[in-house]
Automatic annotation (TrEMBL):
Any matching Pfam family: Bac_luciferase
GO cellular component terms, A-Z: cytosol
Alphabetized SUPFAM superfamilies for the sequence: Bacterial luciferase-like (SSF51679)
NCBIfam families found in the cross-reference section: oxido_grp_1
UniProt keyword annotation of Metal-binding present: no
Name used for this protein in its record: Luciferase-like monooxygenase
């Protein structure tokens, strides 16, 4: 079985606060650690009331500080929003505090809209410099060279593992060129999945960090005792993707009995297209679906996203998944 990891968007549900969302994430990462999940990532999003992970490095420190063995990281840091030096200092600090447990996934999207980019004082053209910024970040994590005038303190010499995130051919080609592990966001942008993975593997050049390609693939998974209950829990995410299509934002919504009362036929097509790889159902249904997904993608690792309104049901979904997939519980 390939290893499983978790991407947590730190969702703020209706009737709750960002503080409560962060506390739920701490509870969930501890649960994931006990269940044997490999890594636990949070992502950078801005000006979104339903996501509480905007200060991503701070959230990573909070979660790493509450655990002892699971890898914790960014999936990802949107590098055009920051200088490589600042990112190296932040993640060098995290690596110094929690050695051997920090991952740094890098994306070139802004993680927000154009108006918010302006509020962040970022140049929208900064994404064009993404490949060079990744190389600069690599250099900042490398051992200090003679005469080097700019150093990340802490950071220099710590070699924090870098990942390239993507949902297109660009990220796949860059990850292959730099010899870095690659994480594909098929949990919301599945169109280029197979082409991107094929290009990444075909063009991969071994590097000091990675001798061979390592592809992690994101997928939405909801497991419950029955197919019917899992499908009902899944309506929370279906509503969220419908709202995304409508251009609206908000807090995570509770599940509903009939999703067809919420979306129009056109919205159903759009949302279902983005969710085409979602695996939802009973343990038997999900095991079969996940086995097919891994066989089709040849994924080296699967990053699971479980967007469920009820915190206990979300924990239970990850628990059932770990059990049916044969994850090895950790002693913590």
């Amino acid at each position: 079985m390939v290893p499983l990891s978790i991407l947590d968007l730190v969702p703020v549900i209706q009737g709750s606060t960002p503080r409560e969302a962060l506390q739920c994430s701490l509870d969930l990462v501890r649960h994931a650690e006990r269940l044997g999940y490999t890594r636990y990532w949070v992502a950078e999003h801005h000006n979104m009331t339903g996501i509480a992970s905007a200060a991503t490095s701070v959230v990573i420190g909070f979660l790493a500080g509450g655990t002892t063995t699971i890898r914790v990281g960014a999936g990802g840091i949107m590098l055009p929003n920051h200088s490589p030096l600042q990112v190296a200092e932040q993640f060098g600090t995290l690596e110094s505090l929690y050695p051997g447990r920090i991952d740094l996934g890098l994306g070139r999207a802004p993680g927000t809209d154009q108006l918010t980019i302006h509020a962040m004082r970022r140049d929208p053209r900064a994404a064009d410099d993404f490949p060079q910024d990744v190389k600069e970040l690599q250099a900042l994590f490398a051992p200090v060279r003679a005469g080097q005038r700019i150093q990340a303190v802490p950071g220099a010499g710590l070699r924090v593992p870098l990942w390239i995130l993507g949902s297109s051919m660009f990220g796949a080609q860059l990850a292959a060129h730099l010899g870095l592990p690659y994480a594909f966001a098929s949990h919301f942008a599945p169109a280029a999945l197979h082409d991107a993975l094929a290009a990444y593997r075909a063009r991969f050049q071994a590097s000091e960090q990675s001798e061979r390609p390592h592809a992690m693939v994101g997928v939405n998974v909801v497991v419950a005792e029955t197919d019917r209950e899992a499908q009902r829990l899944f309506t929370t995410l279906q509503q969220a993707f419908t709202d995304l299509h409508r251009g609206t934002r908000g807090l995570q919504k509770p599940p509903i009995d009939d999703i067809d009362t919420y979306w129009t036929p056109a919205e159903k097509i759009a949302a279902s297209s983005m969710l085409k790889h979602a695996i939802v159902g009973s343990p038997q249904t999900v095991r079969a679906g996940l086995e097919r997904f891994v066989e089709e993608t040849k994924a080296d690792e699967v990053m699971v996203v479980t967007s469920v309104f009820d915190h206990d049901a979300r924990k239970r979904s990850y628990e059932i998944l770990a059990d049916l997939w044969g994850q090895a519980p950790r002693s913590t």
